[in-house]
Write the structure tokens for this entry.
Amino acid sequence: MSGQTRAAILAGRHPLVWGGAFGLGLALTAWLERTGRIDWPWNVALIGFFSLSLVPLALSARNRSRACGTASPALDMYNRRAMIWAFGYVAALGLAMTARNTWHPTGPVLWLLALLPSLAIAYYVWSLGRYLVEEADEYLRMRQIQAGMIATGLLLMVASTWGFLETFGIAPHAEGWWSVAVFAIAQSLAGIYLTARDQRDGGQ
Amino acid sequence: MNNRLKVLRAERSWSQQDLAERLGVSRQSVNAIETGKYDPSLPLAFRVADLFEMAIEDVFQRD
């Protein structure tokens, strides 16, 4: 990769911009729904719309990792799986909400619908572990483990702090599924920190 | 652990990317090893030594 191409990629939009757009979109949808401004099917439509930002997110993440010298076949596969789980999550959530609002099921069917989006999360957790198995580059593997540790720490901090704020009646209730979004964002931030550290310490 | 990676690479006019491709690792890995930020595993250290056709202790030394 030429220096010019590399500089152009690094000067382009950071993956976190797209990730932030996706996260803000989900937060906006949740807020609109919570305050009664929108209801089904507009909430599903909005989530679907904001999910489109996942495509440029994956592409910019791939290009950036190549420009920073952290690309590997396992990382490409991990990014592909990330797209699958993210779109699978949105599709499962939309399907479950649509089915609930259309047929108003109860009992076991309602349970199944409620658990449907968790399948995508299970795939996400599996893909995290699978990456560690498939990554042949030991330094990149160590970096991913470090990013995971940082993200876990940040998630524990955010979740417990929010929980205390909620207990004391300062913050509104937050559903548990937000933990996935917090972990994914924290993992991205950790990746940015580790890359910046590498570059500061003499990366070319 | 100290290493002579940068010198050995310079003697052959290899960039970090060249060395990374020969070792089958990422450029960032070569950089991390070269700057002493990351100590490679024994198998990778042997691969480095084999590539330069040297004994492992001639490439990597104790602090």
Q: What stands out?
A: Chain A touches chain B through 17 residues (CB under 8 Å). The mean pLDDT of chain A is 87. The first helix of chain A runs from residue 3 to 11.
